[in-house]
Write a structure and sequence with these properties.
Layout lengths: L26 H19 L3 H13 L7 H16 L3 H14 L4 H13 L3 H14 L4 H13 L3 H13 L5 H13 L3 H13 L4 H12 L3 H14 L4 H14 L2 H13 L6 H14 L3 H14 L4 H11 L2
Helix pairs in contact: 1-2, 1-3, 2-3, 3-4, 4-5, 5-6, 7-8, 7-9, 8-9, 9-10, 9-11, 10-11, 11-12, 13-14, 13-15, 14-15, 15-16, 16-17
């Protein structure tokens, strides 16, 4: 159970619906669609990905083949639930439907590429990433996100052209400076990374503080990094995706107590969408800390809530039989 999956950067959403056709719906159906959507969002926030998918599909069923901004929005939510729930094939099919509905949709191409990458289909991912970049060539953030995912997947060489495009952007607003700084960080050009991030911070961009902390981490300045992380989390305590990433990083560094703290801080959030991943991380950290009684108790609860996690179920059977 000590191997926990890194989630690729996926800012989006999914479906098993038809994004074409004609039809009409009445006011009751529209009200039902909105109500089912809200329940789906609630389920998603609770980490009940299967339940979220079911309610998003119920919402889509109310549309009677009408496709508008509401339906596309629901589809993206469903995609996110499917992806986070491990249904990569379902996510792929849904993104394909979104692309067929709007062939110029760079976001859907990026997300489908990410689903491909998560499923080990590297060449298909590269094709979609290239297509997404071609559809939105002035989007430096997109280049950076593509590069980050490729680096996560061990494809640093393939990431290089996207990093080069990201740092070549000359926009000087805070977001562009931050994303360019992070691209320099991924290139391990820490001097240029720091220069861009410092400018973004002076313009009030708090996300840049987090990236600056990653630079200090990379340089081995753990104490300074922790101070910056704490500064960031003081304003972003509900950023559970970042807390999960920090927990993973600390596990990799052997700082198991800090990893546990990050996972548990994420679980303290009101409704973390990545609750399942955080709970797995918490159990792994407890095991490394040799807190076997706590780990066993939490694993029993985890397996009850997520019976589809076969690896955790095997771990539980092993511990229970001891």
């Amino acid at each position: 159970m000590r191997q926990i999956r890194r989630i690729f950067f996926l800012p989006g959403l999914l479906i098993t619906c038809f994004l074409a056709g004609c039809g009409g719906r009445n006011e009751v159906q529209l009200e039902n669609e909105l109500a089912y959507r809200q329940v789906g969002i609630q389920k998603l926030s609770e980490g009940d990905y299967q339940g979220a998918v079911e309610f998003f599909q119920k919402a889509l069923d109310q549309s009677v083949a009408v496709v508008g901004t509401l339906e596309v929005d629901i589809c993206y939510y469903k995609a996110k639930a499917q992806y986070l729930g491990g249904d990569v094939e379902g996510a792929f099919a849904t993104y394909t439907a979104l692309i067929e509905y709007d062939e110029d949709n760079a976001q859907a191409l990026f997300l489908r590429g990410t689903a491909y990458l998560a499923g080990g289909q590297e060449q298909e991912a590269l094709l979609d990433y290239r297509a997404a970049a071609d559809k939105d060539p002035e989007n430096g953030t997109l280049y950076q996100h593509i590069a980050q995912n490729l680096i996560y997947a061990g494809m640093s060489q393939e990431a290089e052209p996207y990093l080069a495009s990201a740092v070549a952007m000359d926009s000087d607003d805070a977001v562009s400076l931050r994303e360019r700084g992070y691209a320099f960080y991924l290139m391990e050009d820490f001097g240029n990374a720091r220069a861009n991030l410092d400018k973004a911070i002076t313009m009030g961009d708090s996300q840049a503080v987090f990236y600056l902390a990653k630079i200090e981490d990379a340089l081995g300045n753990s104490e300074q990094a922790m101070k910056l992380y704490e500064t960031y989390l003081a304003d972003h305590g509900d950023d559970t995706a970042t807390l999960y990433e920090l927990g993973l990083a600390r596990l990799g560094q052997g700082s198991y107590d800090q990893a546990l703290a990050f996972f548990q801080k994420g679980l303290e959030a009101e409704k973390p969408m990545n609750r399942q991943q955080l709970r797995r991380g918490e159990i792994v950290a407890l095991e490394y800390l040799l807190e076997f009684a706590q780990a066993k108790e939490k694993l029993a609860s985890y397996v009850s809530d997520y019976p589809e996690d076969e690896e955790a179920a095997r771990e539980w059977e092993f511990l229970r039989s001891r």
